[in-house]
Design a protein that fits this description.
heterodimer, A: 2 domains, 5-stranded antiparallel beta sheet, 13 helices, B: mainly alpha, 0% strand
Chain lengths: 355, 296
């Protein structure tokens, strides 16, 4: 189900030349959606527009089927919002505050008290709920902020940097909680972060913003798919790693050092396996044939077309691994690791920002 | 939940997240909840224990003259003319100012300073309704503060033998004056408090505007009326809510004045009242604008 839809949304602050949001069209569906971007990419601006707190310069958007123009109140009734910055009065007890916020969202008194106790238990503040929030640690404050966003049983929650200022353990807890909200509680979540690694772990879908523009909007799986690149680590003499790398290059593989490992680019899928299909024949035969194959990548798409794409890729993958194994055997080195390198969300920025 | 789980005693089971399908209150219900929680917050309810000390200490102090007057009346048997309702709050203006100055930041600075405002604005009410409800909360709290001693005077006076028929119109004038005073003072204090986010500054600012304004106005009226500039003396009342309320009560309600130059005709009184209300509306517009800009 689509929970948020924006069409050519643009926001300019004052007479600023650079828009905070630039012609943004996105769609957010059920589950956990990560909104990624560097500071100033327009994440908070987008959330404020969606809540009806800011008017867009142009474009339109709807949240849960309500248009942001004219239906701000209905949207704010149905949405839970956790802001990025500190927003807790220090001289109130957490339970009183969450009850009050529940009432401000339209809960009658008795259900507000009941639900406040409930959500505080869910966020893990059951013990501390009678303390004044001025004495809370950052981790407890973040939990209290999350509780107030959930107290009225929203149909959608927007969490602005929920892991801000948390230590690694508290960060893990918070991420697990966000994941639980999206999947166990069944409430769609829009969560922003500038830490890509976090969203890799919890989100089903990632929207990447850069300078107010949409960079990419895809299922998290597709960001993290196997890239075909292989990481190899060998053990042997002092310069084993380097000898291995040179030998691989000599066989026509495109490879480079990557930390303590060797990163090998994938073989072009779809090439006739030829001698590579029988690795027992020895590397001597495999080398000359593989060499040109890599040098002419344009052969790839033509040959690997149709439904045989996946199959061909798998074959190329096997061939690459065989080559690595044979090279290591030839050099008499121990093969410690041959690892498929999966995509990282960081790659999105690396690949596409300069373009 | 498996049998194994339920077998282990003393474990609190996670019953999972429960959705809420029950009734939800309307917009007016939310406004009412905000209104009354605001009034209670002024008196320290729903906040820390020490937040209750100051408002109740001040309330106690403002009751002292009323209790003494009633006590003297019933013990010595003085006449009911001693009961001067309409002058009571001008007489204890220092305490009223302290109360308003100290407690207005609870409603206005606190939200803006701690950032709670962004949570309120992300909820159904919206900035305009929020600002006006906060203002109304302060008006009600001030009313509670200024009416309590009047009530003590009135009830105590009746118990000590004053006649209901004679006292009622005088009390009614004082009540109307108290309402006007509460609205004017609330507007001034809420503007000061919402612009100076620090509590100390807000307190100092409100005291400055209200108390010094009172002194200056009284002085100005004194000088102007001895110099013969009665018009100026009348209009100077606009500088201080206390003087203005006194002036309006005198001209429209036949009360006795505490200040040098109350308005002497009904027309002047009405004009003063109208101008004061217009200024108040202007102040509320400014307050709303302040909150609207905070939402962005």
């Amino acid at each position: 189900m689509t929970v948020i839809q924006t069409t050519a949304l643009t926001k300019r602050y004052g007479s600023a030349q650079v828009p905070a949001l630039d012609d943004l069209s996105i769609e957010v569906v059920d589950g956990v959606t990560g909104l990624v971007g560097a500071n100033g990419a327009g994440k908070s601006t987008l959330i404020k527009i969606l809540l009806g707190l800011l008017a867009p310069t142009s474009g339109s958007a709807s949240v849960l089927g309500h248009d942001i123009e004219g239906s701000g109140e209905q949207i704010r009734r149905a949405v839970g919002y956790m802001p990025e910055h500190d927003c807790l009065p220090p001289d109130m007890r957490c339970i009183d505050f969450v009850v009050h916020m529940g009432r401000m969202s339209g809960l009658p008194p008795a259900p507000a008290r009941e639900r406040a106790a409930d959500v505080l238990r869910h966020v893990g503040l059951a013990e501390e709920r009678y303390r004044l929030m001025g004495g809370y640690s950052t981790g407890m404050k973040q939990r209290a902020k999350l509780a107030q966003a959930l107290v009225h049983d929203p149909e959608l929650v927007m969490l602005d940097e929920p892991t801000n200022g948390l230590d690694p353990a508290a960060r893990d807890d918070m991420l697990a909680l966000v994941h639980r909200i999206g999947h166990d509680f069944g409430i769609p979540v829009l969560v922003t972060s500038h830490l890509l690694g976090e969203l890799e772990r919890i989100s089903d879908h990632v929207v990447v913003l850069d300078g107010g523009r949409l960079l990419r909007s895809e299922a998290t799986r597709s960001f993290l798919a196997d890239t075909g690149t292989v990481l190899v680590e060998v053990t042997g003499g002092g310069d084993a790693q380097q000898r291995m790398g040179e030998a691989l290059a000599a066989r026509g593989l495109s490879c480079r050092p990557h930390g303590g490992l060797i990163e090998i680019d994938p073989l072009t899928p779809g090439l006739p396996t030829g001698a590579g299909g029988t690795p027992e024949d020895g590397p001597g035969i495999g080398t000359p044939e593989d060499g040109p194959g890599i040098g002419t990548p344009e052969d790839g798409p033509g040959l690997g077309a149709g439904g045989r794409d996946g199959e061909a890729a798998a074959a190329a993958h096997d061939r690459l691994r065989d080559l690595v194994r044979d090279t290591a055997a030839d050099l008499d080195l121990g093969l410690v690791r041959v690892q498929a390198r999966t995509g990282r969300l960081e790659d999105v920025f690396r690949d596409e920002v300069p373009a | 939940m498996s049998a194994q789980d339920s077998a282990s005693a003393g474990v609190i089971h996670d019953i999972g997240y429960r959705r809420y399908a029950g009734e939800r209150t309307s917009r007016s219900g939310i406004t009412r909840a905000l209104l009354f929680s605001g009034v209670l917050a002024v008196f320290g309810f729903g906040r820390s224990g020490k937040a209750k000390v100051l408002p109740f200490a001040l309330l106690g102090m403002t009751l002292v003259p009323a209790v003494i007057q009633v006590g003297i009346m019933s013990l010595i048997g003085l006449s009911a003319d001693l009961l001067n309702y309409s002058a009571y709050n001008a007489g204890s203006s220092f305490l009223v100012v302290l109360f308003v100055a100290a407690q207005a930041p609870v409603l206005f600075s606190r939200d803006l300073r701690s950032g709670v405002i962004s949570l309120y604005l992300a909820r159904p009410l919206g900035a305009t309704a929020f600002a006006l409800t906060r203002w109304a909360s302060l008006v009600l709290a001030i009313l509670a503060f200024v009416l309590t001693p009047l009530l003590v005077l009135f009830i105590g006076g009746l118990a000590a033998g004053a006649s209901l028929g004679e006292e009622l119109p005088r009390v009614a004038v004082a009540l109307a004056g108290a309402v006007l005073l509460a609205m004017l003072v609330a507007t001034v204090a809420s503007l000061v408090a919402s612009w100076t986010l620090r509590r100390g500054l807000a307190i100092a600012g409100s005291i400055m505007v209200l108390l010094v304004g009172l002194g200056v106005t009284a002085g100005l009226q004194e000088v102007a009326s001895t110099e013969g500039a009665t018009g100026l003396a009348h209009w100077a009342a606009l500088l201080s809510p206390f003087v203005l309320v006194d002036s309006v009560q005198v001209s429209l309600g036949d009360a006795t004045s505490q200040f040098p130059a109350p308005a002497d005709t009904v027309a002047t009184g009405l004009l003063l009242l109208g101008t004061a209300l217009a200024l108040m509306v202007l102040g509320m517009v400014l307050l709303v604008r302040r909150y609207r800009s905070k939402g962005a």
